[in-house]
Design brief:
alpha+beta, single chain, four-stranded antiparallel beta sheet
Length: 99
């Protein structure tokens, strides 16, 4: 199971706000059936690498389909194969150490 954080940013679109483009990417993540979480700085998705990579490409292409001429995409991957892990499990681990 892998956990991915992706941030897709259209550039040169003639406006400051990008939420319309972000919404298009998040819609793709939700439609994929994979567990996803929108954050203020990106979207976190968990699933098998074989499921994630095609989705990441679709998300990167989404702003182009909506008229952007340039897109910057940042991707961070945590692919752990020695044991099971999840988005919530990672958060719970840190919270447990704070208490």
């Amino acid at each position: 199971m892998a956990i991915v954080e992706i941030s897709v940013t259209p550039l040169g679109i003639g406006q400051m706000g990008v939420s319309e483009y972000v919404a298009g990417c998040v819609k793709l993540a939700r439609e994929s059936g994979l567990k996803c979480q929108l954050t203020p700085m990106g979207t976190i998705i968990e699933g098998a690498a074989g499921e994630l990579f095609p989705l990441l490409q679709k998300m990167h292409e989404s702003p182009f389909a909506a008229g952007a001429e340039r897109v910057s995409t940042l991707i961070k991957i945590d692919d752990r194969r020695d044991r099971s892990h999840s988005m919530q499990g990672k958060v719970d681990s840190v919270i447990g150490k704070l208490e």
